[in-house]
Amino acid sequence: MLIILNNLESHYEIEQLTRMYTKDLSVVHGTKEENLAADTAQWLYVSKNEQIDIQLCCCGKSLQDSIAADENEEKMYLDICAVLYGMYTDAFDKKMAWGMLTGVRPVRLMRNLYAKHGDADAVCSLFKDRYFVSDEKIKLCRDIFSLQKDIIDGCSPKDYSLYISIPFCPTRCSYCSFVSVGSTGASKLMGEYVDKLCEEIRYTAQTAHKAGLNLKTIYIGGGTPTAVSAQQLRKIMQTVKDNFDLSKVLEYTVEAGRPDCTTKEKLQVIKDLGADRVSINPQTFSDDVLRAIGRRHSHQDFIDCYNMAREIGFKTINTDLIAGLPLDTVEGFENSLKGCIALGAENITVHTLTLKRASNIVVNRENNDYSDVAQMLEKCSMLADNGYIPYYMYRQKSTLQSLENVGYSQIGHESLYNIYIMEEIQTIISCGAGGVTKVVGPKGELKRIYNYKYPTEYIRDFDTILHRKDEVINVCQQFGFLNDW
Ligand code: SF4
Fold this sequence. Notes:
Layout: E1 2-6, H1 12-19, E2 26-29, H2 32-35, E3 43-48, E4 51-58, E5 61-68, H3 73-92, H4 106-117, H5 120-129, H6 135-153, E6 159-166, E7 168-169, E8 181-182, H7 187-210, E9 214-222, H8 230-243, E10 251-255, H9 264-272, E11 277-279, H10 287-292, H11 299-312, E12 316-323, H12 330-343, E13 347-352, H13 360-363, H14 373-378, H15 381-385, E14 388-395, E15 404-410, H16 416-423, E16 427-431, E17 436-440, E18 446-450, H17 455-460, H18 462-478
Parallel strand pairs: 1-2, 1-3, 6-9, 6-16, 7-8, 9-10, 10-11, 11-12, 12-13
Antiparallel strand pairs: 3-4, 4-5, 13-15, 14-15, 17-18
Helix pairs in contact: 1-3, 4-5, 4-6, 5-6, 7-8, 7-18, 8-9, 9-11
Bound molecules: iron/sulfur cluster.
Iron/sulfur cluster binds next to loops.
């Protein structure tokens, strides 16, 4: 699809909306005459003069409409997208469950609109009439919004969470574009990485202390943190224990996602050093699907690993599933859901497959049929029947049918960290390669401070990383909440 914009500066909203219908697109600026070749089969022309003219030619249809040009830019782009969404649904004969809503955080949008209008019913009407969101997704969003309200209202600007990144994995899953380094070729790197990471953790504790921040949750993620040895994991977690006051921490999670590198010894280390929540991820209960996505474990390996964690006595175990994996079916996905429910996992997180550009699925141009992913997600109604509530949600670009990822929880086991990070309502200080520190101010201001992405860069330029941590104090000062409590 060729998108031609005339007298319009921004193309972000128009491009994102178009991407929901076609991935193959390019954007140019100028008039139709200047840009349209005789053989351009699919094109969109949006031109702003006294009014805005929109013309769409695709799927054998030719559609056009005009709207008044609003002085308020935000409203103008919303108006354009509303017309465009109508045209796309007509041309492609397909409505999206989230309507024209392209953002990553629909619950935050609902909360912002609620802050403005003060009436949840009015906000739901806006979702329906302004963004064309389906009733089912509005309900999902509203349920999560209501559940999160007290948790979010209870946050103080001086609270923060600590994220620690261990970017290694036993092998790379075919759908993953994560910056994770396969552990087989990285064992030498791991020792040095762990040493640097421990140094950064110690420095971070001092920085947070100087800024007068109060630690609320800890999350050790990756990659797969259990890809390092039990000894290395102990070293990292002991450093955390020695440098932070864990007695006031409300939740401490370690991702132990891959059963092919998570041993009883590592799980015991995790428990002994203070974590109360682990994530052990089957992704699917089908061995054929596991093979197809390059995971080196069977579903029985997952169950054995889960049972070990249960015996060790974690308060909360999360299990991740993915809807839409290659070779999976609606029945297969339903079976996976039933499996997690039968195990009694306190958290079940249901992701929708995202086709990321750097993943093997996309790079290798695998030819899969993903058409039944929405039917898979419909099966999540069985979670409500079994006492699970949705508690956080996010969307990603390039997710199948622009659908969502939702965390479900037994009541009282909702992960605070997941809510904090997805809703961006609390400062998260990150350590390790790929970590992004986000300092959140009292009025919702947000400043990101980046660590280097790859472990090799992280080790090589470690002094710069430590130096950047000092920025946390400067930003807290800028946001006006340093030493004034
Ligand atoms: S375990 Fe997770 S981070 Fe590692 S390769 Fe698989 S999807 Fe990516």
